[in-house]
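User: Fold this; tokens only.

Assistant: Input:
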Amino acid sequence: MNAAGFLDLFIAKSRSAPEAVFARFNGAPIAFGALAEMAEGVAAGLRRHGVRRGERVAVMMRNSPAALATIFGLTRAGVIWVPVNAQLRGPGLGYVLDHCEPALAIADPELLPTIAGSGASIGTAAVISTADIETWLSASAVFVEPLPAPEDCLAIFYTSGTTGPPKGVMLSHAMLRFAGEAVALVAAPQPTDVFLMWEPLYHIGGAQLLVLPLIRDVTLAMLDRFSASRFWQQAQEYRASHIHFLGGILQLLLKQPPSPLDRNHGVRIAWGGGCPADIWRPFEERFGVEVREAYGMTEASSITTYNDGCVVGSVGRPVPWFKVSVRDSTGNRVAPGERGEIVVHAHRPGALFTGYFRDPAATAKALRGGALWTGDLGRFDADGNLSFLGRMTDSVRCKGENVSAWEVERAAAAHPDIADCAMIGVAAEIGEQDIKLFVQPKPGAAIHPAELSRWLGERVAPYQNPRYIAVVDGFERTPSQRIAKRELPRDTKGCWDRLA
């Protein structure tokens, strides 16, 4: 696929089949024609509000028909969409708003006080609620300006890293098209399939699905939020054929109590990224679905590799527009079976991002020699299948060894009484760092840290066994349901100490 946009496909479909359903939100249909009319109303409203082509608009909205129309309206007007996590608050939210300097911010009404309390310097006149754009959505406007070019910036997605402030990934119109095309490869949809969509549109996992109904005969079944306890009921109700997973979604579903719905939901395929090898087959066998794993980053049009060969534990091989290598600290390729940094080259122009917004140092570190140095660890097997081994930054230097959080968390998650867990590094009294493990018990279970430590000691290397264990009721999570590690306390007060 060569670099191309997607808005021309959206406009053509809205004219040729205006009654066709683009998506259903909590069951209510949203037709192509109606969505296009609302989007043109938003585009015209932006111009009346003084927002010019190429300016930035921050959008802090949860999933809704209005959010869909706002996104398509922004992109139609050539305005840069800045998705803002609706869960953000305080200085974290203030940083994003100050850094992107939007000409306008649009937020759900209940989120306006959150913006006001964030400390952002954005003026109150530049913040409006979704209630204020109701007239835009209902207007019969005809927007006649030229479409943005494929290489134009579509959005700035602020990534939530484990350390440091978030970085704004500049995503082009072409990159979102590449992302949608990659979803079609990973998920292998058939005509009239239904994709259950719990992901928020302010996350790339949700945004990439906007392209799918334009390039395949599928419908989105959008939910307002993820619920592990109601997930299979919703899948059955909306006749979903596909579900998407990120982070710990599969683990959360697998830890739900057995139900008659486990095999009576209609879903064929679970696709996404982050399925541990040890739960791959148990998930397929319990729920009767095929797991199709992928790997990628927002910086590389969301999806870089995909596994369509049922190789358990692998993220597969590159999509046609990428070439992937694994390299050591000197930049040389490593042999199959050896670990190193995952590096991505593009075969097609426009598939890789051009940089982080207003962050030349981070851009220079990520883009070197025409390639994306991902900061992720991986290794190839002898057959060319890639395995993802965790973030290089999500590790702890302990007793002279680099300890991957990915490895320790996978071991701890296998404990029968643990619902979820997270590992971080904390300051050591002497030397480098010590390991702190947070564990959330399953409902009705009790975790005794000393017993857990002995259990882990039989499954991890001595230097990987956490010194500190903290039992918690739950975790704050990112939009992709990953644990927000930046919010975890770094102190050791009240923790069980293996060396005490």
